[in-house]
Write a structure and sequence with these properties.
Blueprint: H1 21-29, H2 33-55, H3 58-74, H4 85-103, H5 136-154, H6 158-169, H7 174-181, H8 185-202
Helix pairs in contact: 1-2, 2-3, 2-4, 2-6, 3-4, 4-7, 6-8, 7-8
Length: about 210
């Protein structure tokens, strides 16, 4: 687990606002347990979905999810806001996922890009449910579409899936994803572009 607790390093940021994630983490490091509760409430959903997308097993995802938070707790004394809190947290998560696969001799987070990227700029919203959620037919169609989206994301090559989830579900900018994964911004951009192209191909008839 030692690799999992590695911390990202970056240039200094401006002093955080009182309610910012970085300020809350500093407050927690100083002994304010309620500050950690607020951080956990803010980030537990996106972080869990990120881990689940990477390991595709609910039991393993729950274990790794808890490990990430435990690593954050252990690192609180040495925490410094040299990067955004989300970048710091997802870097811990990235390392833990990599360790998970390394320990099992499994799939590495490497890109399997095939070069068929299309224009790469379209949104995935065409594949998401519409707003008429009160209609039974719409609810059924929405569930079916959501399942197709999950399956299509799960089928992406690991590096593309990670970049896509961080960019779209966790709403992190490409530069932050590059810091988290240790890749160049252009590499991350390509992975997101390939992911979009493959998802559009897989979900082309989902409207």
């Amino acid at each position: 687990m030692a690799d999992s607790a590695r911390e990202p390093r970056d240039g200094a940021l401006a002093p955080p606002a009182p309610d910012a994630d970085e300020a809350l983490m500093l407050a927690y490091a100083a002994g304010d347990a309620a500050a950690f509760d607020r951080l956990y409430a803010r980030h537990r959903g996106p972080l869990y979905r990120y881990v689940l997308r990477q390991v595709r097993d609910a039991g393993a995802a729950e274990e790794l999810f808890q490990d990430v938070w435990m690593n954050a707790i252990r690192a609180r004394a040495s925490y410094a806001p040299t990067a955004k809190f989300t970048t710091w947290l997802y870097t811990l998560a990235h390392h833990r996922v990599v360790d998970h696969w390394r320990q099992r001799g499994g799939v590495a987070l490497v890109s399997l890009d095939d070069g068929d990227d299309g224009d790469g700029t379209g949104a995935l919203v065409d594949a998401l449910p519409g707003p008429r959620t009160d209609e039974p037919e719409t609810r059924v169609a929405s569930r079916m579409t959501a399942e197709r989206v999950r399956e299509a994301i799960s089928a992406l090559p690991p590096a593309q899936r990670e970049a896509f989830v961080l960019h779209v579900e966790s709403e992190l900018p490409l530069a932050d994803i590059a810091r988290i994964t240790g890749e160049g911004v252009e590499t991350v951009k390509s992975r997101v572009r390939y992911a979009y192209a493959k998802l559009r191909s897989a979900l082309g008839d989902a409207r």
